[in-house]
Amino acid sequence: MRTRDINKEEIVKQKAIEMIVNQGMEGFGMNRLAKECGISVATLYIYYSDKEDLIRKIGIEIGQNFFEKMFDGFSTDMSFRDGLRNQWENRIYFNQNFALQATCFELLRHSTHGDAIIQEVTGEYKQMMTEFMHLAIERKELISVPYEVFWSIAYGSLYSLLEFHRDGKSMSGKSFILNDNIKNEAFNLVLKALTP
Question: Coil, strand, or helix at residue 175?
Answer without folding.
Answer: strand
